[in-house]
Amino acid sequence: MQSNAENHEACLHGSGVELVEAQLREGAFSPHRHDTYTIALTTAGVQSFNYLGKRWQSLPGQAAVLHPDEVHDGYCCDQTGFSYRAAYVPPAHIQNVIGGAALPFLAEGVSTNAYLVASALGLIAMCTAEVDLFGYQDALHQFVCAMQRCEGRAPPARKNVNREAVMRVREFLDCVPAPGTNLAQLEELAGYDRWQLSRDFRTLLGTSPYRYLQCRRLERAGRLLRAGLGMAEAAHEAGFADQSHFGRIFRRTFGTTPLAWHRSGQPRTIVL
User: Fold this and answer.
1) Is this prediction's pTM over 0.85?
2) Domain 163-263 fold
3) Secondary structure (3-state) at 132
């Protein structure tokens, strides 16, 4: 990935919302995926990307909302490039609003729906402003309602999903346990079948327990890099097998290398 300017800001909870404001004039983001919702607003130019087997173009005044764990890329369609603002919202935050219902899924990668665009803009603005958890929760609620309205339905709660056990496992993974963590351990912690746990985890949080833990390891490695540790030491301390393993997972998740990310600027993290 090449860009002439890219700044990252992160706020709201240790594994919370990441904010990105970037400008891309050449190059591309290679195919990658996040374990969060990607909510992106193009501020100038034309943002092009592939998602769910289609090519999409996002213009200023439109919103791109990508589902967790779905592969996408990003590239310029002309020499002028594009700039955008994006928030990466954890599905756990969405679950706080919908309380066990299936995660909203928008089949269209780009939306012109005024309600959705306005609520996405409000959510990003609230995250960018001075941290206000109450205000964030209100903006998040409006955005979730907008997604459900665009989806065409508000799904009822899934009574057969063990939400309590899934959230217990999520809290365990948020602590970034030592290398060697596996489904057998999670099954013991949850108190029921590991495969049903995996299905329930994906239903509620939009990704698998494995992918979720990888993203938490990446977050820890990022904090260690910002604290001054070297690449190899940060990878080891975060639980990766080695630096090359860390690099592969990082690029697969964020579409760029750890070195390029580190050189782009240091995120600001605020924990509430």
Assistant:
1) no
2) Arc Repressor Mutant, subunit A (1.10.10)
3) coil
Bridge partners, 42 (sequence order): 84
Query: What is the Cα–Cα distance from 83 to 6, expressed in whole angstroms?
Result: 9
- Asked if residue 114 lies in contact with residue 61, where contact means CB atoms within 8 angstroms, the answer is no
Which candidate, 258, 255, 266, 264, places its Cα nearest to that of 1?
255
Residues 40 and 61: their CA atoms lie apart, in Å, by 11
Run of H or E including 160: none
pLDDT tens-place string over residues 163-204: 999 999 999 999 998 888 888 999 999 999 998 899 899 999
| SS3 per residue for 186-214 | HHHHHCCCHHHHHHHHHHHHCCCHHHHHH
List CB contacts of 36: < 8 A, sequence separation 6 or more: 18, 68, 88, 89, 90, 91, 206
**b/e per residue, 125-134, with b = 16+ CB within 10 A?**
ebbeeeeeee
CATH topology of domain 5-151: Jelly Rolls (2.60.120)
Domain borders along the chain are 5-151, 163-263
CA 56 to chain centre: 19
Note the pLDDT tens digit of each residue in 136-157. 888 999 999 999 999 986 555 5
CA 39 and chain centroid, separation:
9
